[in-house]
Specification:
single chain, alpha/beta, Shikimate/glucono_kinase, kinase
Length: 177
């Protein structure tokens, strides 16, 4: 396991798991959101985004945290493992809520030098609310990732599905660095 893409819906715990995995296998941790988002919540153009992904994935090992399905052809060309964090709807919603509140209170910058922070208005009152996105996409993502598990397009990749924090902890515990 040298080139890993951790996927899952927003709030599933991809980042936390990915950071722990990267440390365990001594690989760089790469967060796709950090590559995609510019200052003031400006989105990268696909051509720029794709090139930046190509650049960071040119390394011999990595743990890539993120979905962005339009990048699958790039991400999975050399990936040897996909780990799907597939926690229950209630668990994921709770984690998303807890994370969002923590970020709003702390005012932490999400990605260095972007100035991007979560706010109450952006998180709960905006048409682009992360919660609206979650409610619209949780089931769709689950169906898509379920199909992915058996797709012939990625038969060269080991796909692992983790359905609870206990499973994730056990998986990490059993990895030999």
């Amino acid at each position: 396991m040298k080139k890993v893409n951790v996927i899952g819906t927003t709030g599933s715990g991809k980042s936390t798991f990915s950071q722990r995995l990267a440390k365990k296998i001594n690989a760089p941790y790469i967060q796709m959101d950090q590559i995609f988002w510019k200052q003031n919540w400006q989105e990268s153009q696909d051509s720029e985004f794709f090139q930046r992904i190509e650049d960071v994935l040119s390394e011999s090992t990595w743990v890539l945290d993120g979905n962005y399905s339009r990048t699958n052809i790039i991400k999975w060309r050399d990936a040897d493992t996909i780990i799907w964090i597939d926690y229950s709807f209630c668990r994921t919603l709770f984690q998303l809520f807890k994370r969002t509140i923590k970020r709003i209170i702390s005012g932490e910058e999400l990605w260095p030098e972007t100035g991007n922070r979560e706010s109450f208005a952006k998180s709960f009152l905006s048409k682009k609310s992360i919660f609206i996105w979650f409610f619209k996409n949780y089931s769709h993502n689950k169906q898509g990732y379920s199909k992915l598990m058996y797709s012939s397009k990625i038969k060269h990749i080991n796909v692992i599905r983790l359905c609870s924090p206990k499973e994730a902890d056990l998986f990490l515990k059993n990895i030999e660095a």
